[in-house]
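Recall the central idea of this unit: under ordinary conditions, the amino acid sequence of a chain determines the structure it adopts. In this exercise we apply that idea directly, starting from the sequence alone.
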Amino acid sequence: MCQIAENVIRSMQDKLGEAQAMYDHNKLEWCNQYIQVLRKIELQKYNEISAKVFEFMDVHTKLSPAEIQRNMDN
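Accordingly, the structure predicted from this sequence is:
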């Protein structure tokens, strides 16, 4: 998902450059807004994925009290 969004953003940046060359301020504004929306979606997805990874790690990597004590002794 995020790689696709980055590819779209790269294409949008090309369109942004074309709009700048043509002094098309409406298109510039639209491109910038579209890029901001995509970046916001990417950030949400990264946060969701990170939360799931950390939750998995928290559930599956907990040490028992005996393991914690053994680690402290070493």
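The longest helix spans residues 25-60.
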